[in-house]
Amino acid sequence: MPALLSPDAPPRASSQQHFELRRFDAPVGAEVIGLDIAKPIDDAAFARLHRAHLDHHVLVFRDQRITPAQHIAFSRRFGPLDIHVLHQFHLGDHPEILIVSNIKKDNGEPLGLGDAGAYWHSDISYKPEPSLGSLLHAQELPGEGGDTLFADQHLAWEALAPALQQRVLGLKAEHSYLAKYEALRAKNPWRPALSQAQIDKVAPAVHPVVRTHPETGRKALFVSEHFTTRILGLPQDEGDALLAELCANSVKSEFVYRHRWAPHDLVFWDNRSLMHLAAGTPDALRRKLYRTTVRGDAPF
Ligand SMILES: [Fe+2]
């Protein structure tokens, strides 16, 4: 016989939300069906989400009508949030949100970071404690283009020839935000000049070329064409050749999921398992997304 609730017991399961997971026909990624981020998520549902994120590396929540504050609150359940160095592109009173957008304001200034992710990378790998994951919420989407690609770096590691695995295991590499900044700025002059205070916040960091995921224990490649500048202990030309070989291997099509954005999508990916790339938007079309970035641990 089921236990009876006393009359003053809290309403049972009022905050429970049931959801399903549908794995994509791709190396990574799953859709979370039936969960409304704007509503309370109890600990059991959150634990399932956490597990799904570790298993699939990319979670897609469709049609999320959430405010910036709700976006931030949901992100914070996974850890403290990073504040992006380009304060020029923070969202108003919410510095936890970086505006990713190619839209220009009436005065001609950029609304957001317009060329974010134009190269394969893992978010803020240039910091001593790179990101656990990022959450990108669609605000305005172009009629064509604007896809985001995700490449599984566990599969990239596992696919390396054993001799190459032996060669790179134990190597360390430098990651720098500044190394390509001026080149990007020359190409996209709307990028703001960095103040000394901003430069001081993004001193280069050194990380293992092969990292171990702190929650699953799986190994993953952790170098990118965008932020990785050199491999320590190797002559620059030899290191460059090795980096090029690793980066070319990292983004083979068999490791990649291509996300085609739908209105109000929220996409949450694991920066410890994946690299990602913004495939580009035609200049004449408007695209705007809000990003939060959850801080992670120092890679080992
Ligand atoms: Fe990114």
Distance between the termini: 52 Å
The main pleated sheet reads as: 8 strands, mixed
Order of helices and strands: EEHEHEEEEHHEHHEEEEHEEEE
SS class: alpha+beta
Q: Count helical runs.
A: 7
Question: The CATH topology, please?
Answer: Double-stranded beta-helix
Annotated CATH homologous superfamily: Clavaminate synthase-like
β-strand amount: 25-35%
| Unreliable parts | 1-13
What's the CATH class, please? Alpha Beta
Bound molecules: fe (ii) ion
The best one-word shape is globular
Total strands: the figure is 16
How many domains, as an integer? 1
Strand order of the largest sheet: 1-2-3-14-6-16-5-4
Portion in helices: 10-25%
- Overall radius of gyration: 20 Å
User: Average pLDDT across residues?
Assistant: 93
CATH arch. level architecture = 4-Layer Sandwich
Question: What do these coordinates show?
Answer:
The protein is of the alpha+beta class and 300 residues long. It contains 7 helices and 16 strands. An 8-stranded mixed β-sheet has the order 1-2-3-14-6-16-5-4, covered by helices on one side. Strands 13-7-15 form a 3-stranded antiparallel β-sheet. The protein has a 3-stranded antiparallel β-sheet with strand order 9-8-12. Strand 2, helix 1 and strand 3 form a beta-alpha-beta unit. The longest helix is centred in the last third of the chain and has 15 residues. The N and C termini lie far apart (52 Å). The N terminus is likely disordered. The structure holds fe (ii) ion. The site of fe (ii) ion has 5 residues, from loops.
